[in-house]
Write a structure and sequence with these properties.
single chain, TIM Barrel, two-stranded antiparallel sheet, 12 helices, globular, binds S-adenosylmethionine, binds iron/sulfur cluster
Length: 334
């Protein structure tokens, strides 16, 4: 085994990466107001990594000590033949968890296959329980399909399902308690994500629309007793339990808090850019490396190891009050 294969993915700040978030497509059947503009131009298909290249990449990362991969997007379940990638990744020795973040629109039909292929956890995004408002936020989505998707994922036996909600000021900030009650009723965890300044979407003033985790906690505290959990994830998420229940409420606060010192993850975009940090534009073009050296996993691994030197100490979403990340969330992989 070469030195490269033995090298852990440790950066110059002593953080070890064991978690890869892989965006399998920038496309989506929804157009959520905080994520995309209404008229989107998506990447030409030939610019995307093929599913085989993604599986090869997964193998390289797992060979370097990554034991957790999350598939995201765009909407991962609209990528054609995504099941083949899920099966390939699901059978990698050394991968402990294969996770998925989805808008839920395809879950009604796909949940059984996902469970069979070894997807152990699913995050499902849902920002409103009012059908009209849900359609307004997602621009094209139907609430009933997502609700049916949640039921299907539970029925398929996927053990850990978490809801994700982005709260937007003046839009769904009156649905925080109903969303928590829905999670309680279904026996599901729920996380509230602060809106992040990813890309410029038609002049959206995110400093105004963003609702902080602290505000959300205060609102939940008016009706539910929350007990801070001692569990931590190496990421921007902090958890609480609702008194008298098993469900966890997470607060993902990349904006108002900075947990970069325990960051354990990197991202790969659907066109193969390795992003060392969500809030930073530095990237390494892994697609070029794979296409120049087809089938050479050692060169790919060496490139990934070298890239760790460029993992920044922390994210800076704003530079003098101006958002500095130009990629949209669907490109980054949320
Ligand atoms: N389409 C899938 C979904 O919606 O779950 C996966 C990709 S989506 C980019 C992943 C997560 O990012 C979703 O929970 C979504 O709500 C969140 N998201 C998108 N844009 C965001 C933004 N600007 N700030 C914070 N969260 C965002
Ligand atoms: Fe699509 Fe997810 Fe972005 Fe909504 S948040 S537009 S579902 S990628």
């Amino acid at each position: 085994m070469s030195q490269t294969e033995l090298s852990p993915l440790t950066d110059k700040f002593g953080r070890t990466v064991n978690y890869l978030r892989l965006s399998v497509t920038d496309r989506c059947d929804f157009r959520c107001i905080y994520c995309m503009s209404e008229d989107m131009t998506f990447l030409p298909r030939q610019q995307l990594l093929t599913l085989e290249e993604m599986a090869f990449l997964g193998k390289a990362f797992v060979g370097l000590g990554v034991n957790k991969i999350r598939l995201t997007g765009g909407e991962p379940l609209v990528r054609k033949n995504i099941q083949s990638l899920i099966s390939d990744l699901g059978s990698l020795d050394g991968l402990d968890e294969l996770l998925l973040t989805t808008n839920g629109s395809q879950l009604e039909k796909m949940s059984p296959q996902l469970a069979d292929a070894g997807v152990s956890r699913i995050n499902i995004s849902i920002d409103s329980l009012c059908p009209e408002r849900f359609s307004a936020i997602t621009r094209t989505g139907k609430l009933e399909r997502v609700l049916a998707g949640i039921e299907a994922a539970q029925a398929a036996g996927i053990k850990r399902i978490k809801l994700n909600s982005v709260i937007v000021r003046g839009n769904n900030d009156d649905e925080i308690i109903p969303l928590v009650n829905f999670a309680l009723e279904k026996g599901l965890d729920i996380s509230f994500i602060e809106e992040m300044p990813m890309g410029d979407i038609g002049g959206r003033d995110r400093q105004r629309t963003m609702v902080t985790s602290e505000e959300i906690k205060d609102i939940i505290g008016t009706t539910h007793l929350m007990i801070p959990s001692t569990e931590t994830s190496a990421g921007p998420s902090r958890y609480h339990h609702i008194a008298g229940s098993d469900i966890r409420i997470g607060f993902i606060s990349p904006h108002s808090h900075n947990f970069c010192d325990t960051c354990n993850r990197v991202r790969v975009t659907s066109e193969g850019r390795l992003l060392l940090c969500l809030g930073n534009e530095n990237s390494v073009d892994l697609k070029a490396v794979m296409r120049r050296n087809p089938g050479d996993i050692d060169i790919l691994k060496a490139t990934i190891v070298e890239a760790m030197a460029h993992k920044p100490e922390r994210h800076y979403f704003y530079d003098d009050d101006k958002p500095q990340v130009v990629r949209l969330m669907n490109v980054t992989g949320g």
